[in-house]
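A quick aside before the break. I want you to see a complete sequence-to-structure record at least once, exactly as it would be stored in a machine-readable document. Don't worry about memorizing anything.
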Amino acid sequence: MGLLLAGLSLAFAVPEARAQSAASPDLLRQQALALEQQGQFAQAESIWHTLLTQNAKNVEACAHLGLDEARTQNYPEAIQYYRRALALDPSLHGLRLDLALSYFKMGKFPQAIPLLAEELHQHPGDLRLTILLGMAHYGAQQYDKVVPYLKAAAAKEPQSAAIRLPLAQACLWSRQFECVLTTYKQILALNADSAEADMLAGEAYSAQSNTPAAIRQFRAAIQANPNLPQEHFGLGYLLWTQRNYAEAEEQFRDELRISPDDGQSLAYLGDTLMHLGKSDEARASLERAMVLKSSLELAHLDLGILDVNAGHDSAAVAEFHAAIQINPKSTDARWRLARLYQKMGQHQKAAAEFAIVSKMKRESAQSLYLKMAGSHEAQATARQKDATPQ
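That is the input. The structure line, written in tokens, reads:
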């Protein structure tokens, strides 16, 4: 029975293929378009393949085959057809945008950006293209280039918080802090309980070293939505910087209730517990953090400190070296390692580490001085310019 059915299928398929090849290209084209309108994409695709076999330079067939592949999310194949069509006729309407969208949906943002930029150049002010180009730069982590596009889109969509959230994030990550706070206020006007916006404002204040304001914003975020990932960690970290270890512990534990495998929260919880004198709990938390994320400088440093306190000098040396390997500019790890070498009687090694620490501190002081001098010079130039008659 199976062989009979297979034979019948082949018998019907051969005349159908012959009928397609015998039909005129124009008739086949009309059939393919009609099938697409009816949602019969597989049948339409078969006809477009026939047309492409008849004429390898059939631009429309290439474009429609790209569209059919994109519909099934087979973007690599769609891109090949779109590129082939674009090489044959760069002026075909919508082709460049279709290619850009396939790149975008694959996460290949650098390839999508020039295509979207050219489309926007040809259609200035188009809202959809403006958002797409902004988000393509966002996906490519080119945050400074995101801001003008999403600002323009937000201006055209005054009621859209969805545009303003990535805009605020791009402003934050490109260190445009006033832009973050301005956008934050716009989001609050649309949604007074936006925990995400409160967090972004908190991060902006933190980056500006305005810790009290940052803490207020993170508390507001938690009040708006106590289950948002990273908000408890953000508040805990700020409290940790203020040495408010008791409350920081609560926040890190709250974060771990939401994200039990967050290695960073475990590391900071371990450090906090160590400062609170809970050495056993601290070690357990730090070791768990290391299992989840071995490249944590803080965890290695703290385990080294705990090892020193427990008299496990060799283990402490290994932990301090691991911390230094992750961050060669860590003066704290090097200083502790030098002290440990001194205690162990390894005076040459201790002297070498102390010398490195001393050099790093001198270089840091010189860098700070030059930065401050440059800032004062820029301010003086600005004052002189303001005082100059126009």
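Two observations worth writing down. Confidence is low (pLDDT under 50) at residues 1-21. DSSP finds 21 helices and no strands in the chain. We'll return to this after the break.
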